[in-house]
Structure formats: structure tokens, C-alpha cells
Design brief:
The structure holds two protein chains of two kinds. Helices cover about 25% and strands about 30% of the residues of chain A. Chain A has two helices and six strands. In chain A, strand 3 and strand 4 form a beta hairpin. Chain B is of the alpha/beta class. Chain B is globular and about 60 Å long. Chain B starts with a strand and ends with a helix. The relative contact order of chain B is 0.18. Classes of the chains: A alpha+beta, B alpha/beta. Chains A and B meet through helix 1 and strand 6 of A and strand 1 and helix 6 of B.
């Protein structure tokens, strides 16, 4: 539902970086979105097409890669991917976990010309 | 040409959230983020909490609303500092809005600041606003499947309040299912069954809350 705020964030992250490299147009923006984040990838492109109008990012394609939920278990030291519906250590069942990945969303790279 | 940038999209929100945390740590103000659906009973619960705690703590409220100010007016009548935050259509509160509003409070004269977030189970959970902890409210009539459907809010809250618990006889609401689902995604969450309207079950929540407030404000 807050895809608009996110889309603005994407443009704020991408456009200055592309300009710094002397690009005149952004062709593609590659995003990584964690499975635990509430972002709906399907809506982002639509929002993006509206918000990017008049910027060098207009017409760019968004390519989204999902990042699975990854934890480190503070009890047994297990590190790895877990099912996002069961936030427990798959090795020892421990619940003292540190979330290493899966909540983030970031712009990974750009394709520009 | 490919440019590698690796830039977090909501980075600015995290930065502002950390600044708020720092300010409130210096001022020893306990900052609580209350979240839940429209109609879950956020305003009623906050009102009940304040009524119970106002003799012991100096409390302020930030009322988030998409539009209108009914809730803020209700609270203003009770005579404690309340600031209305209208998001003008937005589905969540961001750290930046909080940092604009903080100067409206005399932080030296506050122990507790409660934010009533926008009624919504999805978006507010994404945005840290510098809070010490989160309270998620789920009311009995909403159904017992909400923790499964909207995991992030329940995964990131320290307390889960099952409100309108006095209505349970009239709904197919399996409280153990809710508690099980919550424990699956958040092993340390505390679950409280209350009725903000009748006051039933409030002692447990108040005890837990006072403990956390004391930890934050003690010199």
C-alpha cells in the first residue's frame, strides 16, 4: 500500500547515481526485495511508471529479485535460509535468532546509457 | 553500462528513526508505537492505558489519522498533550513525520509518548519511527487468521493485545491459534487478552507496560 513512497525512494536512489555516471537514460533498475517485507512487487512497476515521468528513469524496467529469510541462531550457531512462516532455528528449534536477511529492500544495480 | 549501487530504499527512514531514538534516550522518554486495524480499538486501549497510568507518568500522545481529528479531540478532552498527525491519505507514519512533531512536545516534561499509528495491518510495520517497542492490537471480531495473513506487524511487536475479548463467546475466534501463530514468527511476544471497554484483563498489560516504562525512564 505504500508502494508510492517506495517508488519515490527507488527514484531518489537511482537517478542521482546514474547522473553521477553521466548517464542520459536509465534502462533497467534491479531491485532486491526481502520475503519478509510487505512490498508487493506487482504494484511497484505501475507506481514507478507514473512517478518516474519526466525523469531520466522514465520508461525503465524494474527487475525484482526476492531475498529469502536468513537467520543466525544464537543458541546453536546455525546460519541459513528458513521458511518465512516459521521463524525458528531449523536445527535446534531455538528462538533466539538474529535476522540476517529478508526484511530489506534495496536498489542493487542500474543499466544505463 | 551497468552501475552497481546497493542502496537501501528506505535508508533515510532508518536514519531519522535512529536520530529520534537518540533524542528520546537522552530525554528518557519511553516511546510506544501502537498498531492495528481500523476498529481494533487502538484509541480505546490507549485511552484506558492513560487513565490507568496518568497518576504515575507524564504521558503524551501522537494521533495518526489519514483524515479528520475525532480521536485527537477525544483525547484532548482528557487533558493531556496530544498532537494530531494527519497523513493526508498515506497508509503509515514515517520517522520524518515524528521528527517534525517532536518539537511540539516539552520532552523534559514527559515520561511516555504513545503513537497511535494509522489503522492498517500492513504498511505501518515497515517503518521504524524510533520507538522503544511496538504493541499490536488484534480484536476478536477481526478473526483469528490475521497473524498468518499479516505476519510482519506481529513479528516485530513486543506485545500482542487481543482486544474485545469479552466478545469471544459470539465469534469463532480461536485464541490459541493466534497465540501459536504469533509464537511461530515471534517467540518472545507477550500476548494479553483484554477488553479495553470493560477493563477486563488490563492488569497484566499494565504491569508489563509499567516495567518497560520504568526501565526506560529510570535515572
Amino acid at each position: 500500500m505504500h508502494e508510492l513512497a517506495i517508488t519515490e525512494g527507488i527514484i531518489n536512489a537511482a537517478v542521482p547515481e546514474a547522473e553521477k555516471h553521466g548517464a542520459s537514460r536509465i534502462l533497467e533498475i534491479r531491485l532486491k526485495i526481502g520475503e519478509l517485507s510487505g512490498v508487493l512487487p506487482g504494484y511497484i512497476q505501475e507506481c514507478f511508471d507514473i512517478v518516474s515521468q519526466g525523469t531520466i528513469a522514465q520508461g525503465a524496467r524494474l527487475v525484482i529479485e526476492r531475498i529469502p529469510v536468513t537467520i543466525r541462531c544464537l543458541d546453536c550457531g546455525f546460519e541459513g535460509v528458513i521458511d518465512r512462516k516459521k521463524i525458528r532455528c531449523p536445527q535446534c528449534g531455538g528462538a533466539e535468532l538474529k535476522l540476517i536477511g529478508g526484511r530489506e529492500y534495496f536498489v542493487d544495480s542500474l543499466e544505463v546509457e | 553500462m551497468e552501475i552497481k549501487i546497493v542502496k537501501q530504499i528506505l535508508e533515510w527512514n532508518e536514519d531519522v528513526s535512529n536520530e529520534i531514538k537518540k533524542t528520546l534516550a537522552e530525554k528518557r522518554v519511553c516511546f510506544i508505537n501502537v498498531m492495528g486495524s481500523p476498529g481494533a480499538g487502538k484509541t480505546s486501549l490507549i485511552t484506558a492505558l492513560i487513565t490507568a497510568l496518568r497518576d504515575r507518568y507524564r504521558i503524551g500522545v501522537i494521533e495518526g489519522d489519514i483524515a479528520g481529528q475525532i480521536d485527537a479531540e477525544k483525547m484532548d478532552k482528557m487533558g493531556f498533550p496530544v498532537v494530531q498527525l494527519q497523513t493526508d491519505g498515506a497508509c503509515h507514519i514515517e520517522a520524518m513525520s515524528i521528527s517534525h512533531i517532536l518539537p511540539m512536545f516539552d520532552l523534559d516534561a514527559l515520561d511516555v509518548l504513545i503513537v497511535e499509528n494509522i489503522g492498517n495491518l500492513v504498511c505501518p510495520a515497515e517503518f521504524n519511527i524510533g520507538e522503544d517497542f511496538r504493541i499490536a492490537i488484534l480484536s476478536v471480531p477481526e478473526g483469528d487468521d490475521k497473524v498468518e495473513k499479516y505476519p510482519l506487524m506481529f513479528a516485530t511487536s513486543q506485545a500482542l493485545v487481543l482486544n474485545k475479548y469479552d466478545m469471544k463467546p459470539y465469534f469463532d475466534f480461536d485464541d490459541e491459534r493466534v497465540e501459536r501463530n504469533a509464537a511461530d514468527i515471534n517467540a518472545r511476544v507477550r500476548v494479553f487478552r483484554v477488553s479495553a471497554r470493560t477493563g477486563e484483563g488490563m492488569e497484566g498489560l499494565l504491569g508489563w507496560l509499567s516495567e518497560r516504562i520504568e526501565q526506560k525512564i529510570k535515572k
